[in-house]
Specification:
By secondary structure, this protein is an alpha+beta fold. Helix content is about 40%, strand content about 15%. The chain is built from 15 helices and eleven strands. Helix 11 crosses helix 13. The protein starts with 7 loop residues before the first helix and ends in a 21-residue tail after the last strand.
Length: about 375
């Protein structure tokens, strides 16, 4: 049975006025890997510019965490304690076995202690700056990247923002106790899971236990117990948030990036995407590509060219776009140009979106080439 409805208000694709933190809070986080974070925000905040995210990081309104499913998420500070306490015991194992294989000159605890000592001055450093200060052997450079990721997963380090370009930012890090001294990432796990389930259901419900488990990274029994503690389940297995009501999808066009929140919130991919379009939206590993949304429905794919100054945005419909829809696509492309601070933007009309499920690895990142 399909879900009763999509909770469109939570997507914020109608573009109500708001802030970066409000968008992140309404979605319970956004993917923080650039340029995805900027493109998600550009689709949801009128007049968005990349520096708005920089300011939100600097004001400690949002932080970057290795959390839900061990992925990099942009989380509003007021949700950090709930998210980390609910998921940290699962996330801590994210890189552990890999680190045992890749590190050669010292183990994880030794490198982590050296990083902790380096960062004890309360400073903020990028991964590159951390490596330069520690001067590891060349064969350890890759391993040290995963040491930093593991420390972030354990909430020993926290991402304080990005540097370099809006597209390929390098995350800067601080010690957790220096940047978030009043937040305990290891609170009551059971209570935090119930609260996270309540927030998830309030935001993205109706949903199933399988949906919540996939999104959060919790196991099935933990996800089900948390949902049972805060909501009633109907005979079809759906948990419905209290007072939930269906609203119409946003009108117009949105250019949503790969891994957009709308496409990675439920385990059941057909919840929002028609079965016939699933292989054109998701690859074989479940990665969602960049999608053109028209009046709340997937209508095509798009991708960004490699030039940061003169943006090129290729767009291909699943069927066809009307002249007015092409004009709206060009307006959305202009919004991306403004967000990126680019000099110009060109929309290239393409055709024949590829079957991602049968395509090469990582085709979802740039389905139309270029």
């Amino acid at each position: 049975m399909k879900a009763p409805f999509v909770p469109w208000a939570s997507t914020r694709l109608a573009r109500p006025k708001g802030t970066v933190a409000e968008v992140a809070r309404r979605s319970i986080g956004l993917y923080s890997t650039p340029p995805v974070s900027h493109l998600e925000l550009a689709a949801r905040l009128p007049g968005y510019r990349a520096r708005m995210l920089d300011k939100a990081y600097a004001a400690r309104e949002v932080v970057g965490l290795r959390t839900l499913r061990g992925s990099a998420f942009l989380i509003p500070v007021d949700l950090v304690e709930t998210v980390t306490a609910a998921t940290i015991e699962h996330n801590e194992r994210a890189f552990a076995s890999y680190l045992e294989r890749i590190l050669t000159t010292a183990d994880y605890s030794t490198w982590a202690a050296r990083i902790d000592d380096l960062m004890s001055d309360g400073g903020v450093r990028t991964a590159v700056e951390i490596k330069e200060a520690l001067e590891p052997p060349e064969e350890e450079l890759k391993g040290l990247t995963y040491v930093i990721n593991q420390m972030a997963t354990e909430c020993r380090l926290v991402s304080t923002g990005e540097s370099e370009s809006w597209r390929s930012g390098t995350h800067a890090y601080a010690r957790w106790e220096d940047w978030l001294p009043d937040i305990d990432p290891r609170g009551d796990a059971d209570a935090a899971r119930i609260e996270l389930a309540r927030i998830y259901l309030e935001t993205w419900g109706p949903a199933t236990a399988a949906d919540f488990a996939w999104w959060s990274g919790l196991n099935g029994s933990q996800a089900g117990a948390a949902l049972d503690a805060c909501a009633e389940r109907d005979k079809h297995g759906w948990y419905l948030p209290e007072g939930a009501r269906e609203i119409k999808p946003p009108r117009g066009v949105r250019l949503l990036p790969w891994w957009d929140t709308l496409f990675v919130t439920w385990k059941d991919r057909s919840r929002f995407v028609p079965e016939s379009l699933l292989p054109f939206v998701y690859d074989r590993d479940g990665n969602a590509t960049s999608v053109v949304l028209v009046n709340g429905e997937p209508a095509g794919v798009w991708n960004l060219g490699s030039d940061d100054r003169r943006l090129e945005i290729a767009v291909a419909p699943f069927e066809k776009f009307t002249p007015s829809q092409w004009r709206l696509i060009e307006a959305e492309a202009e919004a991306i140009r403004v967000a990126a601070g680019a000099k110009s933007v060109q929309v290239v009309r393409a055709a024949n979106p590829p079957n991602l499920a049968d395509g090469r690895r990582n085709l979802f990142l740039r389905p139309l080439g270029g």
